Amino acid sequence: QMTTEQLSWRLRHLRKLAGLSQEALARRAGVSRNFLAQIERGQSLPTVAVLRRLASALGTTVAHLLGEEPPAAPSAETVPVPLVADRIAAGPPAFVNDHVEGYEPLPATLLKTLGVEPSRAVLVRLGKDQDSMADTIPPGATVLLDLTPAEHITPKQIYAVREEAGDSLGCTIKRLVLDPSSRVLILLSDNPAHLPRAIRLRPGQPLSEVVLGRVVWWMPGKHGP
C-alpha cells in the first residue's frame, strides 16, 4: 500500500510532468490550492473522490496515480490550448484568436484520450450566469470544446451553440435535438428552470454556423474547500 510520502511525491511528479502549477491542477480538480499543497507535502490524505478528480485532471487513472499501473501512453508533452470567454467564443477562428485571454497547458495524453486534435481544441470560460446546465456543468466552469464540425447530433452529447444579442457574440452550452425535415434545432437544458428553445436554420445554412463544437471535458471555475 502506498504511503502518504509516496503519494505526495507521485502527485507532485505527475503534476510537474503535465506542466501544471498547483493553482492550475487545483482549479481543474475543484480543490483549493492550499489543500493540494498539503497533499503534496504529505500533510493531508485525499479522499477517494478527490483522488478521482485529481487523476482526471491529470489525464490519467487513479491506479496510475497510486503507482499500481503504468500510464496508457506515457508522455511529458503538454499542449497550449487557447482560453476565451463565453461572450466572444462564437466568432470565426481569427476573431477568437484575437480575443484569447491566455493559454492553458493540457496534457497531450488527455486530448488523445478525448479524441481531440490539438488544433481543434479551445477552452471557453463560462459566465457565472450560465446555469442552464447547472445539474451537469456548474456556472463559471471552463469547458473544453472540440471544434471538429459535428456530422450528426445526439441528445446525449452537450454542445456549444452560437448566440447573438445585438453586437454581442457568444455561446451557450446545451443538449440538442435536430429535426432534419424542418431544420429546426431544439436547445435543451439540464436545469429544469430553463425551458427548451428552438432555432430554425436558414435554407442552405450549414450546421457548423450554429453548433460550434462538442463539450468533451470541463473543470470547475471555483475551488472547493
Automatic annotation (TrEMBL):
<dbReference type="Pfam" id="PF00717">
    <property type="entry name" value="Peptidase_S24"/>
</dbReference>
<dbReference type="GO" id="GO:0003677">
    <property type="term" value="F:DNA binding"/>
</dbReference>
<dbReference type="InterPro" id="IPR036286">
    <property type="entry name" value="LexA/Signal_pep-like_sf"/>
</dbReference>
<dbReference type="InterPro" id="IPR015927">
    <property type="entry name" value="Peptidase_S24_S26A/B/C"/>
</dbReference>
<dbReference type="InterPro" id="IPR001387">
    <property type="entry name" value="Cro/C1-type_HTH"/>
</dbReference>
<protein>
    <submittedName>
        <fullName>Helix-turn-helix domain-containing protein</fullName>
    </submittedName>
</protein>
<dbReference type="Pfam" id="PF13560">
    <property type="entry name" value="HTH_31"/>
</dbReference>
<dbReference type="InterPro" id="IPR050807">
    <property type="entry name" value="TransReg_Diox_bact_type"/>
</dbReference>
<feature type="domain" description="HTH cro/C1-type">
    <location>
        <begin position="11"/>
        <end position="65"/>
    </location>
</feature>
<keyword id="KW-0238">DNA-binding</keyword>
<dbReference type="InterPro" id="IPR010982">
    <property type="entry name" value="Lambda_DNA-bd_dom_sf"/>
</dbReference>
<dbReference type="GO" id="GO:0003700">
    <property type="term" value="F:DNA-binding transcription factor activity"/>
</dbReference>
<dbReference type="GO" id="GO:0005829">
    <property type="term" value="C:cytosol"/>
</dbReference>
<dbReference type="InterPro" id="IPR039418">
    <property type="entry name" value="LexA-like"/>
</dbReference>
